[in-house]
Amino acid sequence: MIVVSEPLLDGKELEYVREAVETGWISSEGRFIAEFERRWAEHCGTAHGVAVSNGTAALQLAMRALDLEPGSEVILPSCTIISCAVAILEAGCVPVLVDSDAETWCLDPDQVAAKITPRTRAIMPVHLFGHPCDMAPLWELAERHGLHIVEDAAEAHGAEYRGRRCGGLGTLGCFSFYANKIVTTGEGGMVTTDDAILADRLRSLRNLCFRRDRRFLHTELGVNVRLTNLQAAVGLAQVERIGDHIARKRRIAAQYGVRLAGLPLALPVERPWARSVYWMYGIVLDDDVPFDAAECAVRLRDLGVDSRPFFLGMHEQPALLERGLFRGERHPVAERLARRALYLPSGLALSDAELELAADAVRRVLA
Q1: How confident is the model at residue 260 (pLDDT cuts 50, 70, 90)?
Q2: Phi, psi at residue 74, to the nearest 5°?
Q3: What is the residue extent of each domain of the chain?
Q4: How confident is the model at residue 299 (pLDDT cuts 50, 70, 90)?
Q5: CATH 2.60.120.10, domain 13-239, yes or no
Q6: Homologous superfamily, domain 242-365
Q7: Over the stretch 116-172, which tens digit does the pLDDT of each residue have?
Q8: Of 16, 86, 279, 353, which one has the greatest count of Cβ atoms within 10 A?
């Protein structure tokens, strides 16, 4: 079976992990944490990076750090992982949905203005599949209405918008370092920001809000979502190789583009203002293909090729509908992506031979 993603650990990961083990620094203290935070923030073009245990925790802490009044509204795309909505709800806020751009699959900026109300306090653009959102319209709206921008850049390590990297395009940037990401720590995440006050608040929140003057006196409730020095050791080695990792992703995308050309499906785009990192290579079946993405995945698997579906929109999630959210809403692009789109094996360790076999399987399924 050609798997969807396998990490590439061909740098100094083992050397750094060995150092952490041999020196005894294996928990949430040690030199690799601070260095990983510094290097990742530097890569994103921000002043601060705060490492956490996973991408969901990054979103949760980012929302809590803003300290928004209860009932504040946050605009986000329906087509995203449920972690985004959970983070908003757990902060006492209300998620407000917009649909996606049919070609980039990211939030449609043209729909955001119409969703702004006197209660709106933030926009959460999600940079999907390695392609950045169109940020200029969001910046203009944020400035006009005094809104925060909280980026979900989990799938966009190193992606660029008009020469600036994702994670450095808003108030806060949130990352995941799960095993299928361009930079991985196995499990892990980080929040990036230029705001020193927010960075200090994030560090406190991730560490149970221990006070500097009296450790076990708590005036605020935090959580324990610290990253370990072992994980940061892997992450630092990964950051050192990110240029090569991105080049591999772009080469994989280019090869798929050639091999899948002419088939009844839509392939990823790259806008002139974007530099995509093609985190995973998605395809969208044309409407005249007589089966949906779920059936396509079954047929690919029968040929030895694994795949994954796109997100099911937030407006179709029973756990959110049961809370009285999004009832009666329709987001046609998100709905179509959930039913007609899937992504192919695109991991950093994918070989040329495996890519050729995967592309051939797609051609056979659509023949």
Answers
A1: very high
A2: -125, 125
A3: 13-239, 242-365
A4: very high
A5: no
A6: Aspartate Aminotransferase, domain 1 (3.90.1150.10)
A7: 999 999 999 999 999 999 999 999 999 999 999 999 999 999 999 999 999 999 999
A8: 279
- Of 93, 91, 101, nearest in space to 125 by CA: 101
pLDDT score recorded for residue 326: 98
The tokens describing 17, both together, are 């992990």
Rounded-to-integer distance, Cα 138 and Cα 204, Å: 29
The mean per-residue pLDDT over the stretch 244-253 comes to 98
0.70 exceeded by pTM: yes
Report how far residue 362's alpha carbon sits from residue 300's, in angstroms, rounded to the nearest whole number. 7
Nearest by Cα to 236 from 173, 297, 188, 293: 188
Please compute, for residue 111, the number of CA atoms within 13 A of its CA located in the half-sphere on the CB side: 19
Query: What DSSP string describes 259-297?
Result: HTTTSSEE-----TTEE---SSEEEEE-TTSSS-HHHHH
Alpha carbon distance 234, 188 (integer Å)? 10
CB count in 10 Å sphere of residue 185 = 29
Site of tokens 């983070």 = 87
Helix 229-239, helix 31-44: angle, nearest 10: 40
Q: Which of 58-69 are b and which e, b meaning 16 or more Cβ less than 10 Å from the residue's Cβ? A: bbbbbbbbbebe
> What band does 98 get if pLDDT is binned at 50, 70 and 90?
very high
| Three-state SS at 311 | coil
Length of the chain: 367
Task: Report phi then psi at 62, rounded to 5.
Answer: -60, -45
